[in-house]
Amino acid sequence: MSDENMKNLFSKSMKKRKWAILTVSIIAFTAVFGYLLFEGTKKSVALTLNGKEQEVRTHANTIQDILQDLKIPLQSEDYLYPTEATEVTNNMKVVWEPAKQVEIKVGSETKKVWTTAGTIKELLSDEKIEIGEHDKINVGLDEEVTEETKVEIAPAFPVKLVDGGSEKAAWSTSTTVADFLKQQGITLTDEDRVEPNLDTAVKANDVINVVRVEKVTDVVEEPKDFAVVTRQDSDLTKGKEEVVQAGQQGLIEKKYEVVKENGKEVSRKLVSEKTVKESQDKIVSVGTKVLVAQVSRGSSSSSAQTTSASAPSSGGKEFYVSSTAYTGSCNGCSGITATGINLRANPGVKVIAVDPSIIPLGTKVYVDGYGYAVAADTGGAIKGNKIDVFFPSKSEAYRWGRKQVKIKILN
Fold first, then answer.
1. For labelling, which of 62, 69, 215, 294 has a CA lying 20 to 30 Å from the CA of 405?
2. What CATH architecture does domain 215-287 belong to?
3. Cβ partners under 8 Å of residue 320, min gap 6
């Protein structure tokens, strides 16, 4: 090949290379220009998505388009600002908070809600749930709301607390008596009693009664009675008594276990006793000498016992009286006559009760059908010409009955 041909061939090759380079340059410039133009027309948007901030440049027309581009599933319960249909502008700020489903239990009622609240306090405010001063909640009001959040609220109700007799109004939630007392700061001893039982569930308007039980020891000193010892004395008239030695009471110490409820004694049990001082017996001499009443029979110097029933021979004033009979053991009777004769100890003595203004005490008399006797007693119903004759038995007194008799004064 000649040199001329070689030059022509080389020249053609260079031209092709220049056109290729020029074409590539044009394409590259167009691509860069197009890219710069595309990026330059994008809008800048500041996003806060679930608390995280980021900035994007976008050709999206609406907020919904942006979220779709970012593959964010938008729910009706979510918080979105501005709204999804808002047109995108440059330097726009968008906030999205996804809603969380949480469980809320108030008393026995449970419900699930969607919320975008950040704290428990905000959640309850959104749901219009108020927490009373005495209500019980299982989470703190400042606690953050998460997908795992479960809120349990136990509403408080009124309860009457009676502690040791002192009454006060209180509040409780659904709990047992034991837990309620613990909440109220009430401590119990082993002896205290609670009504109702500690494991009973507390209901509205219940009355919780705490009975304070106290066991104490009480030591008292009580007198110990002395015994009366009698001794027969033949020198004393039968029916008379004479104290030889005065009695003295002893002293006994008794120890009691006392149970008190709310400060008031309800039971007392004797646990021990001992003699502190011995008692001294009272010694009494009792007469055994039988009294014989002697009466005069006129001017005769002879005498007869009161047990004789024969009529006097002569002398003395005679008149009729109304008579009744009595015994030494009648109702209200002491058995001792107004002159000191013990009728119970001397059942054979002949005694009549008289009105001393008619027949003076000590007067010896003769009563028809009764015999010789002594006016030795009185009576509230014995007034004027009336006498009451003594008999040792009720049957004899009943047989005497009430009748008019003649009486003769012997001295």
1. 294
2. Single Sheet (2.20)
3. 385, 404, 405, 406, 407
